[in-house]
Amino acid sequence: MVSNYDVAIIGGGPAGIMAAISASQNNQKIILIEKNSSLGKKLLLTGDGRCNITNQNFIKKETVKSLGKQGDFLLSALSQFGFKETRDFFEKNGLELEIQENGKAFPVTQKSKDVLQLLIQQLKEKNIKILLNSKVSRIERKENSISKIILNDKKEIIANNYILATGGKSYPSTGSTGDGFSFSESLGHTLNELRPALCPIQVKEKWTKELSGLSLSNIGLNVFSDNNILKKWKGDILFAHFGLTGPLILDISSEIDEMMKKQKIIIAIDLFPDKPVDIYQLINKNRNKNIKKILSLIIPQRLVSYVLSFSKINPNKKGNSILKQERLKLEGILNKITLHPIGLLGFDKAMITKGGVSLKEIDSKTMKSKIIDNLFFAGEIIDLHGPCGGYNLQICWTTGYLAGKSVV
User: Fold this and answer.
1) pLDDT value at position 47?
2) What is the residue extent of each domain of the chain?
3) Measured by CB atoms within 10 angstroms of the end CB, which terminus of the chain is less buried, N or C?
C-alpha cells in the first residue's frame, strides 16, 4: 500500500509536532509518523511533569552566544521563532504561561499534559494525518533525494519533502532509541559523537546513598586535578543513591564527561562559596552546645554526621572543648567535601543527547539538508543542546517551526 503526501514527518515529539503545525500554513497534505501508541511521550516528562516550555533568557544574544558554534547556528532561527513567538503561539491557543524570575516558562496549570493536549488539538484542527504505532524500517534514496519511506508493516509513504524529528537516544523508554541517527548516516550525513547530556553523575563514594533526596542550594562545585582547580560553578545539587544530580549537576555533566576523558578528577562541594563560615565565632557563641548541634545551625541535619565523620570529631564534644586543629579541619571540610566521579549514568537517565547530525550539513535558515534535496531536520537529532531550564524545548519549537515553514 502506497500513500502520497506533500510532507512526511518522522517523529511525533515536540519538534515533529511543531514542524507539522508550521508546514500546515502552506496548505500542504501532511502526515506525522510516530512509532509509539501516542504522541509526545517524552514531552510529558519534562519539567518533572510541569513542562518547562521555554526560557525568557533565550532572547539575550549573550545567552545564545554562550552556546558557542551551536549558538551561532541558532541566531537566525531564534530571530524567526524564539521565546516571544513560542509564548504567543501557546497563549493565543489558550494556554497561559507563567514566567519565573530565572526566566523559566511553565504553563500556569503546571501540567505538561495541557501542553500536549493543545498541540494535538492544533494537529486535528489543521487536518494533519497522524499515524501511530508506525515504525519506519528504512528510507530509500534516489540520487540526491529521498524517494520513499517504508514502514515495518511494509506500507510505503511517498512525499515531496521529509522532516526527520526522531529525537536522540536519551530516555529510550519513551521511544528515543536513536533511529534517526541511523537514517541520517544511511543518507550520507555525518554524525558528531553521541553522548548523554544533562545527566546525573555516578561517584565512587557510597555515603551519598544515605543522603539520597537531600538538596543543597546555591553551593559551590569545584573540579580538581592534581590539586589544581580546573573549573568552578555555583548552583543547586541533589544527593542520590548513585551520586549527584540536580540542576547544576545536569548542566555541567557534559563538561565533567569531557574532563574525565582526559584526566582523573575530583569533585569538591563548597557549602559556603560566597563567604566562608567563621567557625571560631560560631563555636564561641555556642560553646556549651555539642558540636553536632552547633553544625546543625548552619548545614542540614542529615549532613552533619558526615561532616563530623570526615573531620574525626566526636559529635558529642562541647564547643568549648574543640581544639584549634579540629576547628581548622572543620573549616576545610565545609569548603571542600570531595567526591570521585566514575562517569555519567548513561542515555537511560540523560535528559538529552549531545552530538547528532553535523551543523555543517544543515542550512541554519531553513533546517534543510545540504546533502539531500528534500530532507529537513528538527529537534534533538541535530547536534544542538542547551542547559536545563527550557532551552532544549525551545530548540525543538524553533527548529520544528523553521523546518515546517521551509517545506514548500
Assistant:
1) 81
2) 2-196+350-406, 201-344
3) N
